[in-house]
Write a structure and sequence with these properties.
Layout: H1 2-20, H2 27-49
Helix pairs in contact: 1-2
Length: about 55
Amino acid sequence: MKPLLWTMLLVALVANVSLNFMVEQEGLHIALSVVSGVVVLASAAGLWMLRGPREN
């Protein structure tokens, strides 16, 4: 599960950065940027929830 979340996180980050280099600010561009941002946040939250216990 963690490798899938890491892959989703990296792909969504690359997609978000590449979308930000697009000059046109059309509705599709904004929608794709929002979707990739949600995927980044969701996969980061999933990785945070699946982290191992901390050692003191």
